[in-house]
Design a protein that fits this description.
Layout: H1 4-29, E1 67-73, H2 77-93, E2 97-103, H3 106-118, E3 125-129, H4 130-138, H5 146-151, E4 177-178, E5 180-189, H6 190-195, H7 207-213, E6 219-221, E7 224-231, H8 239-245, H9 263-277, H10 285-288, E8 299-305, H11 309-315, E9 320-323, E10 337-339, E11 341-345, H12 352-362, H13 365-374, E12 379-380, H14 401-408, E13 410-411, H15 420-435, H16 441-456
Length: 460
């Protein structure tokens, strides 16, 4: 009998062998296992790029090229200080402008300007006045500002409109912009009226009333008059306002004939002559030589223009005030004609755009508020410009009448012609003879009309 353990071991080995063989056969007959898909290797990481530099700051805009403009003016030292303040303001706002102020005393200013222009050395920008603007315009000296005004739609309505005719040509083109307006005004010493026991004059006073009270305002020591009732004899540009008051006119409507010898005009000239020659209540030229009658307290009333206010505030030590000119019955609402200053550019300037920029800015309400308004010397050329004229802590109490007069005052008709210098020279010379009693009024005015008519008609 076989050993069961041996039999079992043999059976195990045989079975194991069959198992291996079967496994091999099965493996051979089975389909091949799919080849596993290779996982691609991860792409190598790029090294971090350096951070981009911050964008460069924008380059500052190039500074505009600076242009120097010569600015010709004629001011006293006080007024010149305010002008220089205005120039500094303009240069700060427009760094491309460098303004060279060339100041000449008034007495020499126009001759210097004439010489400079004739010599090809005209300043770029120029102080001008109503009286002479047309003369310089017809000489082709001034730059036409109208193209700039139209291109920029620049509003000129804020300038005193009744001043503008003096600065326009026949086509209505503008050649200058006003910086101030001057009107005729009547000043009185409150102190003298009080001492004379007279009420202070009012805006309703007439020239006839002034003449009636004048003897009470005069003081004499023997043959010498030490105090006068009135001073101020109409000549130059103010003459027209006095003629208008009495219904007269200096020029005909077409500006071709002088009417100074009309009855209305003759009556005005005779009135002022009588104050001096007949009534002896007004000073002669000799009385006023070398003495300031007003500031020395020897003058009760006077006519002069509105530009004296700043000086009176400093120099006049007594109480004073201002009124419109006294009335006349023939035209009670007419109190004054007007004149004034302006700024313009020379046609010959090499920098017309910059010259226009300066003229425009220097007559802005901000600049005029400093140059004219802060000085208090007269009414600014723009109605909106601020002014210290109405400072209640300073005289005159009635300062607002200056604005009221300016609102209604028309520019002198002679300023609308290019003949101001010749015409005023003719009639001022004759008026000097009449006002001193050396020539009868009617005779003298007849003579001067004959001199002026050819001038107006372009024959002289």
């Amino acid at each position: 009998m076989q050993n069961p353990r041996l039999t079992n071991r043999r059976q195990f080995l045989r079975t194991a062998a069959l198992g291996v063989t079967g496994t091999a056969i099965l493996a051979a007959c089975a389909p091949a296992a799919p080849t596993p898909t290779a996982v691609p290797a991860a792409a190598p990481k790029e090294a971090p790029k350096p951070a981009a530099p911050p964008p460069a700051a924008p380059s500052p805009a190039p500074k505009p090229k600076q242009v120097e403009l010569r600015f010709a003016v004629a001011y006293d030292p006080t007024a010149l200080d305010f002008v220089k303040k205005g120039v500094t303001m303009v240069e700060a706002k427009f760094p491309q402008l460098k303004i060279k102020v060339e100041n000449t005393p008034w007495a020499d200013y126009w001759q210097k300007l004439t010489t400079d222009v004739a010599g090809g050395n005209a300043p770029d920008t120029i102080l001008m006045v109503t009286m002479y603007a047309q003369e310089w315009l017809v000489k082709n000296v001034l730059l036409d500002l109208d193209p700039y005004i139209r291109a920029e739609k620049f509003d000129i309505e804020d300038y005193w409109p009744k001043m503008m005719p003096a600065y326009k040509d026949k086509q209505g083109h503008v050649y200058a912009l006003p910086y101030d307006i001057s009107v005729q005004t009547f000043y009185f010493s409150q102190e003298i009226f009080q001492k004379a026991g007279l009420p202070a004059p009012t805006a309703d006073m007439s020239w006839d009333q002034l003449r009636q009270m004048a003897p009470q305002l005069v003081k004499r020591e023997g043959d010498r008059t030490t105090q006068f009732a009135y001073d101020g004899f109409p000549t130059g540009w103010p003459l027209e306002g006095f003629l208008w008051q009495n219904g007269g006119r200096l020029l005909s409507a077409d500006r071709k004939e002088c009417l100074i010898n009309s009855p209305e005009c003759t009556e005005v000239v005779q009135y002022f002559t009588d104050l001096r020659v007949k009534d002896k209540v007004a000073p002669t030229p000799a009385d006023a030589t070398g003495v300031d009658l007003w500031n020395s307290g020897r003058l009760a009333t006077r006519y002069t223009n509105s530009s004296v206010v700043a000086n009176y505030r400093v120099d006049t030590k007594f109480a004073w005030d201002v009124l419109p000119l006294p009335k006349r019955a023939k035209a009670p609402d007419v109190r004054s004609c007007s004149a004034g200053g302006s700024y313009c550019a020379a046609k010959a300037t090499k920098f017309p755009d910059e010259a226009w920029l300066f003229v425009k800015e220097f007559t802005s309400k901000e600049i005029l508020g400093v140059v004219v308004g802060d000085s208090g010397r007269t009414v600014p050329g723009r109605r909106s410009a601020p002014t210290t004229l109405f400072d209640p802590t300073k005289p005159p109490k009635n300062a607002r009448v200056l604005i009221e007069i300016a609102e209604n005052a028309q520019v002198m008709e002679l300023a609308e012609t290019p003949y101001y210098t010749k015409v005023t020279k003719a009639y001022d010379t004759m008026l000097g003879e009449i006002y001193t009693g050396r020539k009868p009024a009617k005779e003298g005015l007849d003579e001067v009309k004959k001199q002026i008519d050819p001038i107006l008609q372009g024959k002289d």
